[in-house]
Amino acid sequence: MGLERDWLGGSLFRSMIFEAATLLNEKREEIDFLNVYPVPDGDTGTNMALTLLAAAKEVERCSSDSVGDLAAAAAKGSLMGARGNSGVILSQLLRGFAQPLQDRDKAAISDLAKALQDASATAYKAVMRPVEGTMLTVARYAAEAGKQAVKKETDVVTWWKLVLEAAEEGLAETKTMLPALADAGVVDAGGQGVVTILRGAYAALARGESPAADGVPSMSEVAAVPATTQIGIREVESIEFRYCTELIVTGSDIPLDALRDKLAALGDSLLVVGDREAAKVHVHTNHPGRALEICGEYGEMLEIQVNNMAEQNRQASRRSQQPETNGSRPPSPDIDPGITQGPEGMAEEKEMGIVAVALGDGWKTLFQGLGVDVVLNGGQTMNPSTEELIEAIEKVPADRVIVLPNNKNVIFAAEQAAKVVNKQVAVVHTPGLQHGVAAAAVFDESLEFGELVKRMEAASRDVISGEVTYAVRDTTTDGVQINKRDYIGLEQGRVMVAGKDLVSTTKELVRRLLSKRKAEIVSLFYGRDVIQTAARELLQQLRAEFPDPEWELYEGGQPLYYYLVAVE
Q1: Are 489 and 439 in contact, with CB atoms under 8 Å apart?
Q2: Cα–Cα distances in angstroms (integers) from residue 537 to residues 102, 226, 515, 532, 542, in the given order
Q3: What is the dihedral of CA 514, 518, 524, 525, to 10 degrees?
Q4: pLDDT tens-digit map of 14-32
Q5: Taking the domains of the chain in order of start, what are their residue ranges?
Q6: Contacts of 416 (CB under 8 A, 6+ apart)
Q7: pLDDT(336) > 70
């Protein structure tokens, strides 16, 4: 079974990863609900679950029964699949965990204790300003307990139980470390995710059996998780390269640059990432057979997928033409690769380009109108993975690329993606879509790259942003008493006002925002649940109350948030 009193074998370690991924996936909605703010966009559980599922799939592909090889596979899979801040931090925990296990066919308790310590240290180091009362704290409690338990325990199951109990203690302590958690009456969501992972791993360890890998749900089986691989429908005739070709190439010495160069002549949307033992390949081409021949020259091919995008578009177009029912919109087409280009398609090679993350058709149109080369579908509740961000960056026809994450929970993943690609990439810290539009508006290709990045950063910082959404539970947050289903107005993520009426709540939020500074321009971006006439009427009322600023109204089409506000 791979388990003795004082060591852990690869077969059981594999089962621990599978069990942890499965349990986290089952509990993701409960973890999402632990959002400090009672807004309907909690996604910590979903991000962590998708990240760990990506790790589990990489472990599933690994043919080795070495603990070191399997831990390395989990680290690699989690990095490419990381979504959101919590997912990126989880990938760093797994990366640190794998480091001391290199070349270990089996792991002693002392090895596992060192792995937990390195996991914690790596995650803390990866975060620019670590905050206690988060998943970092829970991981640290687990690591410290593991280190102490080595001195008195020789049984792996007992040792892991002590680690789990310490993590649970650390999770309970998060309430006392962060007043926001205490006010909201919840523990840290990321910390709950870490405990869930450890609990799932312990269940497999205590059982001492090795269930089959098919116990891990596939990404397509993850229920109720919005896919980021959605774009607007393109005309069939505009698709120059019709076949989306994806696969994994495994071998002993894969020259990534050589493989990339050979495939580059076959089409576009080329992605070749990985290492010399395993590479993920993605290309749009009219010659998928030739692409497979080239890949076959470098190693064994796994998980081959060839999809006719022209046919997918025809089917999606037919679906989109069906009448809407019950006021709902038709479902978005599920088309690879989740990327929308500018209206002119891919331009010729240029000096600099931009990637922007956006959610909502109106926002995509706005960014395209500002010259953004690639708009990646994502944002609140739909954080793109590191791999998807890499693909978007690679798609820009420039060697220097600026990324606008447009969501505070995407910034970390974007920074990880920037380290992987063979381009000069700068991530402008745009915590919201309003900040991203302001940054994109000052893009000037005539400027030196570093100077341009500073200019866009300054434009982002100059925006005071507001959001209007609704509460998903009763709570007191930031001193504001909130009832479930109240409309709530936030200033740059902080709750400022709550009320029963959408218009009154929005107007009060705008009043608070305008009290902060003398505004020259105020922009309102209405979401998909607001009709245009209602938005125009609100704008007229605000203009009458505040005649000095210039007022602008845009259709954003964002979900969950009725209005996004930008004060400049």
Answers
A1: no
A2: 63, 32, 22, 9, 9
A3: -100
A4: 999 999 999 998 898 888 8
A5: 7-221, 232-319+330-337, 339-460, 464-567
A6: 79, 82, 88, 91, 386
A7: no
Closest listed residue to residue 432, CA positions, set 322, 499, 358: 358
SS3 assignment, position 178? coil
Does the pLDDT value for residue 173 go beyond 80?
Answer: yes
In one letter, which amino acid is 544? A
Identify the pLDDT of residue 59: 92
Q: What is the pLDDT of residues 349-367, one digit of tens each?
A: 889 999 999 988 899 999 9
Pair 188, 85: CB distance under 8 Å: no
Confidence check: pLDDT of 439 > 50: yes
Fold annotation for 7-221: 1.25.40
Identify the bridge partners of residue 468 per DSSP, sorted by sequence position. Answer: 489, 563
The set of residues, in sequence order, having a beta carbon less than 8 Å from that of 325 and lying 6+ positions away, is: none
In angstroms, the first-to-last Cα distance of the chain is 63
219 in helix, strand or coil? helix
Output the pLDDT for position 311.
59
Q: Does residue 543 have a pLDDT over 70?
A: yes
pLDDT at 313 over 60: no
Nearest in space to 458 (alpha carbons), one of 476, 478, 443 = 443
- State the residue for tokens 């006010």: 183
Question: Are the CB atoms for 139 and 93 separated by under 8 Å?
Answer: yes
SS3 513: helix
What amino acid is encoded at 391 in this protein? E
Q: Is 187 exposed, middle or buried (0-12, 13-18, 19+ CB in 10 A)?
A: buried
Calpha distance 120→143 (Å, rounded): 7
> Quick one: pLDDT at residue 296?
92
CATH-assigned architecture of domain 339-460: 3-Layer(aba) Sandwich (3.40)
For the 232-319+330-337 domain, the top CATH level (class) is alpha beta
Q: Is 451 exposed, middle or buried (0-12, 13-18, 19+ CB in 10 A)?
A: exposed
Tokens of 399: 């060697």
The residue behind tokens 């599978």 is 18
- Asked if 385 and 54 count as a contact pair (C-beta separation under 8 A), the reply is yes
Identify whether the C-beta of residue 454 lies closer than 8 Å to the C-beta of residue 164.
no
Specify the amino acid at residue 464: I
Q: Classify 464-567 by CATH class.
A: alpha beta
Residue 342 has pLDDT above 60, yes or no: no
Tell me, what's the pLDDT at 402? 97
* Positions of E strands within 380-493: 398-404, 424-427, 464-470, 475-477, 480-482, 487-491
Q: Hunting for tokens 């995407």 — which residue is that?
A: 410
**% residues pLDDT > 70 (the chain):** 84
- Which pair of tokens denotes residue 435? 């900040």
Counting every residue written for the chain, the total comes to 568
Q: In this predicted model, what pLDDT tens digit does every residue of 440-488 receive, in sequence order?
A: 999 999 999 999 999 999 999 999 999 999 888 888 888 888 888 889 9
Tens digits of residue pLDDT in 215-236 = 454 434 443 344 333 333 333 3
Give the bridge partners for 499, in sequence order. 487
